[in-house]
Amino acid sequence: MMTDKYSAVTDEKDENTIIAERRAKLSALRQQGIAFPNDFRPQHKAVALQEQYGPAEREALEAEKVHVVVAGRMMLKRVMGKASFATIQDNSGLNAEGRIQLYITNELTGEAAHEAFKHYDMGDILGAEGTLFKTKTNELSIKVTKLRLLTKSLRPLPDKFHGLADQETRYRQRYVDLIMSEETRRTFRARTAGMSSIRKFMSDNGFMEVETPMLHAIPGGAAAKPFITHHNALDMEMFLRIAPELYLKRLVVGGFERVFEVNRNFRNEGVSPRHNPEFTMMEFYAAYVDYKWLMDFTEAVIRQAAIDAHGTADLTYQGRPLDLSKPFHRMTIVEAINKFAPHYTNEQLHDGEFLRTELKKFGVEPHIISGVGALQLSLFEETAEAQLWEPTYIIDYPVEVSPLARASDTVPGITERFELFITGREIANGFSELNDPEDQAARFQAQVAAKDAGDEEAMYYDADYIRALEFGMPPTGGCGIGIDRLMMLITDSPNIRDVILFPHLRRED
Question: Looking at the predicted structure, is the pLDDT value of residue 176 above 70?
């Protein structure tokens, strides 16, 4: 048996030498006028052929003489004198690998085409016509009668047994990762299925999908540090969107009572296994509902996305069970601290000076103007947040850290707000919206004061949004779901970069 010298492990031959040899082959194709053709149209996909004809008996399949036309990237190659085998890979199927074997011979394919095939390289994209049959090992294959090189691959693929071993290279060269790893392909197919589920769920419940600006004159809708850019034509400073909230609520003012947006947001903050500067959220607003309705609805959205993307809401995440099918837990910030750090007394949790001293033990230096509510939230983040494995709504956030949320009618100092935590991570944030323009203006003023005092994440004063509220916004509830973090759960991915096709990385040297 003769093996293709270019299908060897990359590091057995200098990569530059391999590329030079492949460029020489491409040059020869150019001289023949057959480089990069675009007149081949595949008619069949590997997974569909496997599903339909895989169970067939060998004799029956031979007798049927099923003619097929396929195309794909060559992933395996065996050359044996007058007969050769190749395996091509296409993008068919959501839960199965799209591969099928080609059988190339002098007799069926032609001696010239077979000889040309012997010089093809792993990674080349081929088009083939022929009839289906099964080998002696019962593998569904194609007896090739016509074979064409559609795209010449100039760079060698990684070793098929190891793929891309370096994780950063997988992120940086996602195109190679997708070629080599069925697990990676499965992750992003699941992400697409989950997004399709969310869009359908929203539409089925009367929500209209909209698009709002990504360039903002005033950053708003979240407490976050923005990316700053400059609009040359208008000669003005602008900001990449940190959240679409204020524009979506303008639409509710305008009469669109149920709206949602799958939005890309940008926050000029840290990078971690849970944070990427550019990320995806699904944010939605509904008139005449409150935060309790939002919690029920958000739970239903997430559960259905898991079912449609994963097949069940009963998941396993990083080796631990995670059941999204059960009702999500609900507790206040203080209740969560009491559960996971029960040594604190109620008196201590309401003593501002004690909280400041205690937070310093965790390396947290509270802002000088932080009140007891904000200090309790910081202590929750240090003692309880990471332990919220099962889906849990933390409710009733303090007013001072919730500048856009409606204040409680019964408990002073808190708002009708929740955050959803799963596996110790925030997945969603929602609240009954503040629709009192005078109260909102006062909250904005407080944010401006905080910014002047050094809080870089405090919000700006948005006069146009106040004007919109002055026209009247109905009672409304709104929520944002972190799509990337949700997809981490659904696909059992430990790092947010695993579910983002092209995550942000440092520039290559």
Answer: yes
Paired residues of 230 in beta bridges? 237
Assess whether pLDDT exceeds 70 at residue 329.
yes
- DSSP states of 39-73 as a string? -------HHHHHHHHTTS-HHHHHHHT-EEEEEEE
Buried b (16+ CB within 10 A) or exposed e, 369-379: ebbbbbbbbbb
Q: How many CB atoms lie within 10 A of CB 36?
A: 12
Q: What is the pLDDT of residues 118-127, one digit of tens each?
A: 999 999 999 9
CA atoms within 13 A on the CB side of 355: 26
CA distance 254 to 252: 5
From CA 40, how far away is CA 44, in angstroms rounded?
12
C-alpha distances in angstroms, 371 versus 127, 153, 222, 354?
68, 62, 19, 12
Q: Are strands 329-332 and 392-395 parallel, antiparallel or unpaired?
A: parallel
Contact 218, 240 (CB under 8 A): no
Question: Of all helices (H) and strands (E), which one includes residue 338?
Answer: helix 333-340
| Nearest-angstrom CA–CA distance, 4 and 405 | 65
> What's the half-sphere exposure (Cβ side, CA atoms, 13 Å) at 348?
13
CA–CA distances in Å: residue 106 to residues 3, 126, 427, 488, 498: 17, 18, 59, 49, 45
CB environment 329-341: b (16+ within 10 A), e (fewer):
ebbbbbebbbeeb
Enter the pTM of the model: 0.90
**How much is the CA Rg of the chain, to the nearest whole Å?**
29
Tokens 């959205």 sit at which residue?
301
Q: Are 489 and 389 in contact (CB under 8 A)?
A: no
Characterize 280-303 residue by residue with b for buried, 16 or more Cβ atoms within 10 angstroms of its Cβ, and e for exposed: bbbbbbbbebbbeebbebbbebbb
Contact 97, 136 (CB under 8 A): no
Indicate the pairing of strand 83-89 with strand 140-151.
unpaired
Place 454 in a pLDDT band, splitting at 50, 70 and 90: confident
Are residues 182 and 33 in contact, defined by beta-carbon separation less than 8 angstroms? no
Give the β-pairing of 140-151 and 99-105. Answer: parallel
How far apart are alpha carbons 15 and 80 in whole angstroms? 26
